[in-house]
Amino acid sequence: MGLPERSSGRPTAVLREPQTISERIGRAVDDAVRPVGEFFDGLSRQIASMVPWVQGSVDTRGVHYGKNARMVGSGLHLPPTGLGYKSTTSQRWGTGRMIRLIQYTGAYAHQQGLPDLEIRDISKEGGGRLAWYSKREKRWIGHSSHRIGLDADIRNFFKPAGTVWRKKGSKRWREQVYAFDTERNWLVLRGILQYRVSDRRGSPVQFVFTSQSNRNKLLAYARKNDPSLYREASRVLNVEPNHGGHFHVRLYN
To answer: pTM of the prediction?
Structure first.
C-alpha cells in the first residue's frame, strides 16, 4: 500500500503515535519541557525589548584560538554604562553576540533588583593578545584568552561574613571578610543561561569558568531552587584557577 499523496502528487509521511517505551518516554519529556522553553523564550523577548542595539559592525563571527588569534573585523565596543551594568576597562571590544549577551544579562539583573554588574575585560579592538610583560616579575601578566571577542569577565557579588583578627608584628586589627553571595550570583548566571540567539539551537554559552567552591555552591542552589536549569548550569560551569572572584563567560565560535 502506498503512502497518501498531496494534490501535487508527491508522497507525504504518515504521522504515527510512539510505540516503544523509549519513544513514549521521549514524547512525555518533550511535552513536559515545552512549557519551560516557551516561558524562557517569552522572557528573552521581553528583556531583549528593553536593551538597545549597539551601533557598529554586525559581524558576530570569531576565529579559532591560537597564538595569533584575532577577531574578524574590529568588533563592537560596549558602552561604559548601560541598563544593569557598568565597566571601567577600555578592553570592551567583542563580537556582536558577546556584547548582546552582556546587555541582556545586565537588563535581567536589573529586572531582578540586583546592583549594576561590573563588566571587566572582554577583548581589545581588533582582538589579539591581552597581556603585558612585567619586568619586575619577569613574566607575562594578563589573559591567555580574551583574544577574539568571545570571552568576558563579570565580577561576582560578595556579602559581609563577619570579621577576623589580623596581626603584623606588634600590630593587631579586625578586618571585614566577605563570602560568595550564592543567591545573587545565581541570578546573574541564570541571565547568562537564558540568553539566546536566532541562529543557534540552545544556549550559545560554551563555558562559565569559576572556582570549585563557587561551582559547588551554585549547583547546590540550583538543584534546590531552580532545578529546570540545573543540567545546563552543570554543563557550562567549569573550574579554573584564579577565577574565584568573577565569572569568565566564553561563547561558542
So the answer is: 0.69
